[in-house]
Amino acid sequence: EWVSASQDTFALMSGILSLVHPKQYAQGVQCMEKILGNSDLRQHAEQWACVFNAVSALANRETPFHRDGLGAFPWYDILLTVGRYTGGQLSLPALGIDLDYSPGTVVPLCGNILRHGVPHCEGERICLAYYMREAVHKWAGTGNAGWSGGPDAE
Fold this sequence. Notes:
Helices cover 29% and strands 29% of the residues. It is built from 5 helices and 8 strands. Helix 2 packs across helix 3. It starts with a helix and ends in a 14-residue tail after the last helix.
């Protein structure tokens, strides 16, 4: 039910990925086509309007500094934060910056490389983290998208 209700958001996150890492986007499309071709997975995949093959929901959670570990280093994850809260901040210590993480903020980042964390904030906050699991792409045989050259890269 949640997946069906989230189709517009899933499509938007896929569209953002197509701009920041077109090759990863294309690899995600290939992977989803492979999943759709699998009769055991097709029923669920038909409702999944996203090139990311995983999404995690984190509710009202302070997230200690960490790197993500289930994707490939060159891949982008996309973080979307929603809710009614104040004082949201996304910290990237290696870059020496703290980003405003207000409701509705979308942040693409290489989560396997950049340590990131989110301190406590006041109110109700949900972060949706969209990412790709490398093991799924290995199963699908989609190869490696490599590093992003941006929307104009060939």
